[in-house]
């Protein structure tokens, strides 16, 4: 009932004239308008945006450099209060932001709710952390006659390059951490979700972030993104997206004739779910479905491969096929929809290509039905599952509702984990087992960032399950964890001799 009432508010907040343009004080917003189509029905235009040109990016850099010292000198508690005010505003405007997520990103309404909640959580979490870490730095232990403190401050200008799959939550997480730490921010969201980025930046301005401290420069990675990451005035980049793009950003940050910029990247995954013969089949299938197909599989945390022990495999596969036949694929604005569209036609092409390859190499387990009328004009991919012989048949992350099943036999558990590690990715891992030794053995051997036991493996909660991977899956530190915010900061150790004598109390005492 609550969700139904919210859905009505979302519908009432849905508009077709959303507009985004660069938010850069002193720049002219010239250029052509680019139309944004509804992923569920490409004939519908939901809004327009205008890209930043080179002069606008240059102006944004100048503004950001000029504005940062004052923002850095603002007490951390004041910065935190602004971010907390933004969290309150976002909560009040949940229906509008869910409407934007549905119309621009094709998110279902429950996904939209989770998206806004996560954004609110990130704003409050980093605000709270900034109060503690920046407000009154804890004195370090040291000898008498000396005071030692570690003081945190902003690094300078941060570029926040956020993804379309969490256009509000990850955007808010990156921006909140960078701002809380005393940086000025230039936000360049993924092109697919510029409307959400624009309205989120406007909301942060309304909450009190100065316009030169948080600027919005929409555009593509090759021009706007590259202009930012190759510029020596940018001290660091927060990025979520592909491993390949993270590599390119890292090269750009190192190649500049300036300090090597900091990269904080969350990238892809080839996430596995392991079920052994002690797993409860209903629970395993339920969690496999949720992990693989929620958000149309467009989460880097999503399960891509289910490793099931052979003695429960037939039953599990039959139940999976049965459950997939019941999935409702269609308009994300309807509460009855389980799986919405994928983000755009490029994403659909890659998935279709993968399905074509699987046809020759794997056994189809199930494809969820697509209602031709509801899906004819959108970028829909029918949730699909195939049985594979080995993980090496997957050569890339398939970003969408595509699940793969591989059987394993007793005695092969270590090989299964080694194969998962050998993919090079290390983001999430699901384990379904009732045997403690098995669970411990898998957790110890797997090189992953987030392991989930007997539950689904998506939806990490800020501050509760710090999120992020190893190896090809990212640089760390984990988002929503205690070490993320300090990575956006410089550390200055300040040692003061509190006596009238010269010398070095540390050496005298400890040396
Ligand atoms: C991503 O999909 O880019 O745990 C990462 C989760 C989310 C994943 C975010 N926090 O499902």
From TrEMBL:
Residues 33-494 form the Aldehyde dehydrogenase domain. Coiled coil: none annotated. In the N-terminal section; belongs to the proline dehydrogenase family. Oxidizes proline to glutamate for use as a carbon and nitrogen source. This is Bifunctional protein PutA. It comes from Cognatiluteimonas sedimenti. The gene is putA. The chain holds residues 561 to 1071 of 1072 of the full protein.
